[in-house]
Write a structure and sequence with these properties.
Layout lengths: L1 E5 L6 H12 L3 E3 H10 L3 H10 L7 H12 L8 E4 L5 H13 L6 E6 L2 H9 L1 E3 L5 E3 L26 H15 L1 H8 L3 E5 L4 H12 L4
Length: 215
């Protein structure tokens, strides 16, 4: 089962992706995670990507395509995969189709998680990170002591792309460059829309109802 997960920043794609891969035993492929790993390791790709991500902008297609093509060629993707954060543009979608066609594969379904803008801003601007890898939310999952990590007692920080100005820019970029994918995959009769404003268990219940048709 080959699945694409679409949705704006803060829609809860990462949370639902974990549940999907655990239930269906397919690898979770997140371009965001792979890019951040490169940034943290200061690789040439990471340095280049950082200049875009810190401003809430999408990285150029050629960077994302290179990462995805390499990842999909690995053996753990032979029985299926979940793409999270890719494709984000029509050119990326076209490139993905070419990559899959070369190996006689195809996308089975595209899950589109929808959430209102103001809810997304509330979710994202409240996130805090720690250098030890722990993450919190000042409303939904706050640390015991304000701005201090429960695990290592380090000072929490807000990622540049989680600040309100960057969030609004990210949403503008998303609507301009990524939402056309909904029309793209609708024409291919692959899109299925999920209400992301519900609680986490209900969202996953709706997702499972859709994936049951392809499992």
């Amino acid at each position: 089962m080959n699945v694409i997960l679409l949705g704006p920043p803060g829609a809860g794609k990462g949370t639902q992706a974990k549940k999907i891969v655990e239930s269906y035993s397919i690898p979770h492929i997140s371009t965001g995670d792979m890019l951040r790993e490169n940034i943290n390791n200061s690789t040439p790709l990471g340095i280049k990507a950082s200049s875009y991500m810190s401003k809430g902008e999408l990285v150029p297609d050629e960077l994302s395509i290179t990462i995805i093509k390499d990842r999909l060629s690995r053996t753990d993707c032979s029985k299926g995969f979940l793409l999270d954060g890719y494709p984000r543009t029509i050119p990326q979608a076209d490139a993905l189709q070419m990559i899959l066609t070369e190996s006689d594969r195809k996308i089975d379904v595209v899950l589109n998680i929808e959430v209102y803008d103001e809810e997304l801003i509330k979710r994202l601007s409240g996130r805090r990170m720690c250098k030890c890898g722990a993450s919190y939310h000042m409303i939904f999952n706050p640390p015991e002591n304000d701005e201090i990590c429960d695990l290592c007692k380090g000072k929490l920080f807000q990622r540049d792309d989680d600040k309100e100005e960057a969030i609004r820019n990210r949403l503008t970029v998303y609507k301009k460059q990524t939402q056309p994918l909904i029309e793209y995959y609708t024409k291919k009769k692959l899109i299925r829309t999920i209400n992301g404003g519900q609680d986490i268990p209900q969202i996953f219940k709706d997702i499972k109802k859709v994936l049951k048709e392809y499992d």
